[in-house]
Design brief:
The complex is a heterotrimer of chains A (227), B (245) and C (208). By secondary structure, chain A is mainly α. Chain A is built from nine helices and no strands. Chain A has one domain. Helices cover 84% and strands 0% of the residues of chain A. In chain A, 52% of the residues are buried.
Amino acid sequence: MNRLSLTQAFIFLLRRDLTLVLRNRGEFANPLLFFILVITLFPLAIGAIPELLARIAPGIIWVAALLAAMLSLDSIFRSDFEDGSLEQLLLSAHPMAVLVLAKVCAHWLVTGLPLLIMAPILAEMLGMAEEAQGILFITILLGTPVLSLIGSIGVALTIGLRKGGIILSLLVLPLYVPVLIFAASAIDGASAGFEVTKQINMLLAFLFLALSLSPWATASALRMSMS
Amino acid sequence: MFLWFHKLGSPPHFYRIAGRWIPWLLAIFAVLLLSGLYGGLFVAPPDYQQGESYRIIFIHVPSAWMSLFIYVVMAFCGVVVLVWRMKLAEVVLISSAPIGASFTFLALATGSLWGKPMWGTWWVWDARLTSELILLFLYLGVIGLHNAIDDKRIASRAVAILAIVGVVNIPIIHYSVEWWHSLHQGPTVTKFDKPSIHLSMLIPLLLMALAFKVYYVLTLFQSSRAELLKRERNSKWVEELSRGQ
Amino acid sequence: MSDTALLKIHDLSCIRDDRVLFEHLSLSVDGGQMLLVEGRNGSGKTSLLRILTGLKLADAGDIFWQGQSITQLGADYYEAVCYVGHHDGVKRELTCLENLRLVQAMGKPAAIELDDALEQVNLYRYGDTPVGNLSAGQKRRLALARLLVTESKLWILDEPFTSLDKKSMANFQALFEQHMAMQGLVVMTSHHDIVIPGPNLKRLDLSA
């Protein structure tokens, strides 16, 4: 028998990871709950002043998304690392970067996609302008995969460490800055009625850049971590 | 050329050469620093807008330059580490990180000191200061990751990957922050945008920049030598060295 | 040392922290042979095995597979290798069959029915059982079934008999002999006695 084609292997691993999540439901909800909780804290902390909330809503939503994404990063490789599946993947006949991409895709479908569905509801709760909500949707659609992709490098570097968590945030959050800036500013601009094609294009560029480069970095970081 | 590269790459050879160079570098550094400071503090005329307080640029600007330069050096070493597994590059990479972080911190501190008379606050969310701050986090990440991994050979490779990822991101971060700044602050005049810099200011500035570069090489040599001894403590040449003394 | 050997270890050294685990290790293993790596705890058995898989880098030296350095071969080498380490590398949430399908998807599948493979490791009735419900010994057998469902010439096994009973051990030894009879290679460590007849068994003692 021949070995699977690259696409088949990609889909196989993606489906495996989704199956694992389905059989292990806790993982699914946690980042989403965290996202909602952080956003709920803001009106409580600064007062439920509609104009103020509407003004800072883009920032709040994106900072919360950033933190939720970061919190969920560890789960990309953690269980595979612990039960030895990760070393078997590294010994696979397929290029590791493609397998990494499959795992990151699965991770995004599980942690990023729920944010995408939840964000409009939260935007409504914060009183964000109607015309900005479409843009919010687009920024989350384009931005959160970048967070997962960049984050996977950080996790791969710290997976073997006992206290990887704090280091992980130090490694990853500075790299998230460009996404945060352009995403928040796109929503901001849209609520003020400006043209925001530039910001969206930048996010798109980040996505393509991260898609093409980060799997390689993650794969070599994993190889390093497992040696 | 390759042979020379290879020879310099061998730890005992580097240890000897670097040791021989340190006194000379120290002398060059002292000359450059003193002449730069003299030029900057006494020869250069006061600025017509900022008076005497602008003179901090003779520290601030070279530190900011160095903070970027050292990161690029680290990323370059990172490539060498990953491709050729050269031990010396590992040592240079990790010894550079604290020096780079210090220069970044110096740039931030002097920028903030400068901000007080200029804007009346210690901190403004100026584009360059903000980029420097993020750069400082990148440096701290490198140092933190290296400290967290016990096996230093593995740690070096981890840090190499991180430095390369960082160097790809620095221009993006820099550009984003600049853009963010222009968006939120409106067209304020940033402090570096002088239409043209007078020669009597430029010369001390360049002298200081050179002095900082030499200082970097000097401290790099010293800490690399220490790091090499630590890593190679079981090898024959270190044993011979310690017996000889 | 013959130049035609399939697997050649040349001048290999491994240093961990400050200790030299082994130095200037050279040997070769040919098709149909087994290399049994022995030594006390911490003598570098696992390190040697992981270096052989390509997971770990040696501090010096090279490994050649069919005359080519494994660092250059990359994925082509991984296709020829099957490794079972300390960890079973099976997912507890998936069933036995799902786990084996994954193994096949990631490597070069062998022409064998998965049910047959399960039967050979005495897990025939467990195909649809989630691995989480299996005992440690059953899990280990499933991990070793990975050897049967992929077409790999070189088996690298780190303590394969952990938590196995005598009967299963004998069963797997028979499988190893079968593999060697088909010109396969086995490199393994084991605290248990191995009875492989004659010249096909090479021993390497790392504590010496």
